[in-house]
């Protein structure tokens, strides 16, 4: 499995090799995350709730697009996304203890 740091470097190198840093502003990367997340949602629009009716290859592509923009934004914001995810999971563990029942 590829480490997050390796992915961050690949995303950064891809951007820098094309001189796209000037386009990778926090606003534009945030917009891009939202746009790609909307494309992900579109795969599920008017379909069953499970994965059986979703094109798995397209799902993989859209998830990758979202992740690439998240890595790009966390890079320019100087946020270690792996650590941020671990921190958030810990907060969620405290907020939603496993022994409690939840009505979703």
Short description:
This protein is an all-alpha fold and 104 residues long. The chain contains 4 helices and no strands.
What would you note in describing this structure?
- With 104 residues, the chain is an all-alpha fold.
- It starts with a helix and ends in a 9-residue tail after the last helix.
- The protein contains four helices and no strands.
- Helix 1 packs across helix 3 (56-76) and helix 2 (26-42) runs antiparallel to helix 3.
- Helices cover 64% and strands 0% of the residues.
- It has a single domain (4-95), classed as Orthogonal Bundle (Helix Hairpins), CATH 1.10.287.1080.
- The protein has helices at residues 4-17, 26-42, 56-76, 81-95.
- It is globular.
Per-chain topology:
Layout: H1 4-17, H2 26-42, H3 56-76, H4 81-95
Helix pairs in contact: 1-3, 2-3
Q: Keywords, please?
A:
0% strand; 104 residues; single chain; Helix Hairpins; globular; 64% helix; mainly alpha
First and last CA, distance: 32 Å
Helix content: 55-70%
Report the CATH C-level class. Answer: Mainly Alpha
CATH topology assignment: Helix Hairpins
Superfamily (CATH H level) name: MazG-like
Q: How many helices?
A: 4
Largest sheet: none
Element pattern in H and E: HHHH
* Class by alpha and beta content: mainly alpha
How many beta-strand runs? 0
**On the 0-100 scale, what is the average pLDDT?**
96
Q: Write down the Rg.
A: 17 Å
Indicate the proportion of strand residues: under 5%
Assembly state (oligomeric): single chain
Compute the number of structural domains. Answer: 1
Under the CATH scheme, the architecture is Orthogonal Bundle
Low-confidence regions: none
């Amino acid at each position: 499995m590829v480490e997050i740091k390796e992915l961050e470097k690949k995303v950064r190198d891809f951007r820098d090799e094309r001189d796209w840093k000037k386009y990778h502003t926090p606003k534009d990367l945030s917009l891009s995350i939202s746009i790609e997340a909307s494309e992900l949602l579109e795969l599920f629009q008017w379909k069953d709730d499970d994965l059986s009716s979703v094109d798995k290859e397209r799902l993989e592509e859209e998830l990758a697009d979202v992740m690439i923009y998240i890595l790009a934004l966390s890079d320019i914001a100087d946020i270690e996304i792996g650590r941020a995810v671990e921190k958030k999971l810990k907060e969620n563990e405290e907020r939603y203890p496993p022994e409690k029942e939840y009505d979703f």
